[in-house]
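From the methods appendix. Each design record in this collection lists the tokenized structure first, followed by the designed amino acid sequence. Records were kept in a plain field format so they could be parsed without special tools. The example shown here is representative of the layout used throughout.

RECORD:
FOLD TOKENS (305 positions):
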């Protein structure tokens, strides 16, 4: 299967310049991506490793780099002949998103593979920049919104616990692009009636992930009170009488701690300090539980001798 996958990746990477029927060529590539990497089941575990070894990431990055300049404008309805290129880009970013999940080698490959012009991280920034200054509600087509959602999902996964990716994405300006997009949604996340709600959640998750490994990003996010409230909502919000708050993400903790230094005292919300204190209490309880478990296990082993 490994040799067959290598042949498939070579066919995907084959240049699509100069073909007489571009729509047919896009459809050919879409079929390759969807049949080989079209869902999480195809991209995870041993098969995900085979795809990585077969060169899936360089093939996907090469394809995405080649078609970026062919995307139709986001503020206009997509003509039929341009729809397939948007679908192809969406499929490719979806494959990178799924391959990056639980696979550190793939996340590193997105950074290190180079299509002579861009590595995968630079390409992510260029795709998000394609929608720069276009608020969610001004994106005219469902296909474009799906593409942007797919790119942001890929950024979220490749930034997970991968320091070099986080720093490079920040240096490329991705945090400013995503922050602008979140802040132009309003003071809160979009409600369930808005089709860009999923993309907004993913954008917030990207900023939290990057802030965990990149202090500069944490400080940048900490300077905007509205953005802080949005990121807390992305994380899961504060605890209520009926629901406990989730475990605090290290990236959000970094942002909340940075806010103590970046914001004047009167702008710092005391509830943010409560979040940090509650997380510290949770950690202390977990440490006591683990210590008690070890002592109980040691006692049982001693009694059995």
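DESIGN:
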């Amino acid at each position: 299967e490994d040799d067959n996958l290598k042949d498939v990746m070579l066919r995907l990477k084959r240049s699509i310049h100069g073909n007489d029927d571009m729509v047919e060529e896009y459809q050919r590539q879409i079929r390759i991506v969807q049949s080989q990497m079209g869902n999480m089941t195809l991209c995870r575990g041993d098969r995900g490793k085979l795809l990585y070894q077969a060169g899936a990431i360089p093939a996907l990055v090469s394809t995405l780099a080649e078609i970026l300049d062919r995307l139709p404008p986001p503020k206009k309805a997509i003509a039929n002949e341009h729809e397939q290129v948007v679908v192809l880009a969406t499929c490719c970013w979806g494959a990178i998103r799924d391959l990056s999940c639980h696979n550190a080698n793939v996340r590193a490959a997105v950074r290190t593979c180079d299509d002579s012009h861009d590595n995968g991280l630079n390409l992510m920034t260029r795709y998000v920049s394609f929608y720069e200054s276009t608020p969610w509600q001004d994106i005219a087509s469902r296909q474009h919104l799906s593409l942007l959602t797919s790119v942001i999902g890929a950024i979220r996964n490749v930034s997970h616990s991968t320091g070099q990716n986080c720093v490079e994405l920040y240096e490329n300006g991705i945090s400013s692009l995503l922050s602008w997009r979140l802040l132009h949604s309003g003071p809160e996340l979009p409600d369930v009636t808005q089709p860009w709600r999923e993309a907004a959640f993913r954008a917030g998750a990207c900023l939290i992930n990057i802030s965990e490994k990149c202090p500069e990003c944490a400080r940048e996010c900490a300077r905007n009170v509205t953005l802080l409230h949005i990121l807390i909502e992305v994380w899961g919000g504060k605890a209520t009488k009926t629901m406990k708050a989730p475990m605090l993400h290290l990236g959000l903790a970094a942002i909340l701690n940075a806010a103590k230094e970046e914001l004047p005292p009167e702008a710092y919300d005391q509830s943010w300090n409560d979040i940090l204190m509650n997380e510290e209490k949770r950690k202390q309880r977990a440490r006591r539980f683990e210590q008690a478990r070890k002592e109980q296990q040691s006692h049982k082993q001693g009694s059995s001798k």
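APPENDIX NOTE: The CA atoms of residues 124 and 149 lie 12 Å apart.
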